[in-house]
Specification:
- With 220 residues, this protein is an alpha/beta fold.
- Helix content is 48%, strand content 12%.
- It folds into 2 domains: 5-16 and 93-216, 3-Layer(aba) Sandwich (Rossmann fold), CATH 3.40.50; 25-87, no CATH class.
- The chain contains 10 helices and 6 strands.
- Helix 3 (32-45) packs across helix 4 (54-66) and helix 4 packs across helix 5.
- The protein starts with a strand and ends with a helix.
- The relative contact order is 0.18.
- The structure holds magnesium ion.
- Magnesium ion is lined by residues 9, 11-13, 170-172.
């Protein structure tokens, strides 16, 4: 190990996912068919490659499921999923200890990245987590969602750090832990209990434990 840079997933890792779910419930209730099919499309699109225009392909897949024109599907997603989802985010707070640990790591000279499958910048603003990131971006920008290697390699390149010196922190075993390990990064799994035979280098449920683990394995 020997970490000099730490990457973070956002949803369910920097804030509790269920709070987001409660806030976005009205959208799910008013547009259950849209939400349901969008969930299916997000799973499907992870298996497709190459992808040249992520949002366009996503609209085409959704249109197929919903029996409508891709332009209509694109507009529906923008309005009810991407936009309303961002406004429903107001008032959501980071998990306990997140901000203090990030500021501490930053002050010790670690490079920090935020990498989410959804647009990242405004979410970090709403969470009050700005000014500490060396890079913050969405895997959509690379045309591929996690656990595809591309978003993780893009993060390493933006951090100008070899994968083996990066620890990636996330709550999804399949997308975050296996994705990061797949490109040679270390992975910390945010979870109340370790997965049996977990490939994660560390599992934690208290950000202070994560900070201790990082400092014990620091490459700075
Ligand atoms: Mg997550």
């Amino acid at each position: 190990m020997g970490f000099t840079a730490i990457g973070f997933d956002i949803d369910g890792t920097l804030y509790a996912n269920y709070k987001m779910f409660l806030h976005s419930l009205p959208a799910g209730l008013f547009h259950p068919r849209l939400s349901w099919n969008f969930g299916k499309v997000r799973k499907e699109i992870r298996r497709i490659r190459p992808v040249h225009n992520f949002r366009h392909l996503q609209a085409q897949l959704l249109a197929g499921h919903m029996g409508m024109e891709p332009e209509h599907a694109f507009a529906l997603m923008e309005r009810f999923l991407y936009q309303s989802w961002e406004t429903s985010f107001r008032g959501i707070k980071p998990l306990n200890g997140v901000k203090a640990v990030l500021l501490d790591l930053k002050s010790r000279g670690f490079k920090l990245a935020a990498l989410s499958d959804f647009p990242a910048a405004r979410k970090l603003e709403y969470l009050g987590l700005t000014g500490m990131w060396d890079t913050a971006f969405s895997s959509e920008d690379t045309q591929y969602l996690k656990p595809h290697p591309e978003p993780f390699l893009e993060m390493a390149s933006r951090l100008d750090t070899p994968p083996e010196n990066i620890l990636y922190v996330g709550n999804s075993y399949r997308y975050d832990v296996l994705g990061a390990k797949g490109v040679g990064m270390c992975a910390a799994h945010y979870s109340s209990r370790p997965k049996p035979r977990s490939k994660a280098d560390f599992t934690f449920f208290d950000y202070k434990d994560l900070r201790d683990f990082i400092l014990e394995n620091s490459g700075i």
